[in-house]
Automatic annotation (TrEMBL):
Protein's UniProt name: UBL3-like ubiquitin domain-containing protein
SUPFAM superfamilies the UniProt entry points to: Ubiquitin-like
PANTHER family noted in UniProt: UBIQUITIN-LIKE PROTEIN 3, UBIQUITIN-LIKE PROTEIN 3 HCG-1 PROTEIN
Chain positions covered by the region annotation Disordered: 81-106
Organism: Parnassius mnemosyne (clouded apollo)
Taxon lineage: Eukaryota, Metazoa, Ecdysozoa, Arthropoda, Hexapoda
Biased composition (Basic and acidic residues): 81-94
Length: 111
């Protein structure tokens, strides 16, 4: 997995499909690349958050649950953040209706 910081710095790590986002945060924190990421150091592992395909991952989500291809490099962003953001109201309405949260669903019409 290639992790990208907000600064654009990257580092590659190897993880298993059973590893969760929380496990990854702890591993990265415990093995912080001092030479490359010294200026990006955080105070504790719990504030490290992974972003995959534009979505924050909850700490319990495993890589296997994401359906990532085995043997290929997956890119995720790693950001320091105390709490996950609340889902926006559009996403919540769509989920409650059982629909997709993407812009161009079947009920969308652009004139």
């Amino acid at each position: 997995m290639r992790l990208i910081l907000v600064s654009g710095k990257t580092k590659e790590f190897i993880f298993s499909p059973v590893d969760s986002a929380g496990d990854i945060a702890v591993h990265v924190y415990d093995n912080w690349p001092e030479a490359d990421w010294a200026s990006e150091c955080v105070s504790r592992a719990e504030i490290l958050r992974l972003i995959y395909q534009g979505r924050f991952l909850h700490s319990s989500v495993t890589l296997g649950a994401l359906g990532l291809p085995l043997g290929r490099t997956t890119v995720m962003h790693l950001v320091p953040r105390e709490h996950l953001p609340e889902p926006n109201s559009h996403d919540q309405r769509q989920k409650s209706k059982g629909g997709s949260s993407s812009c161009c669903s079947a009920s969308c019409c652009i004139l």
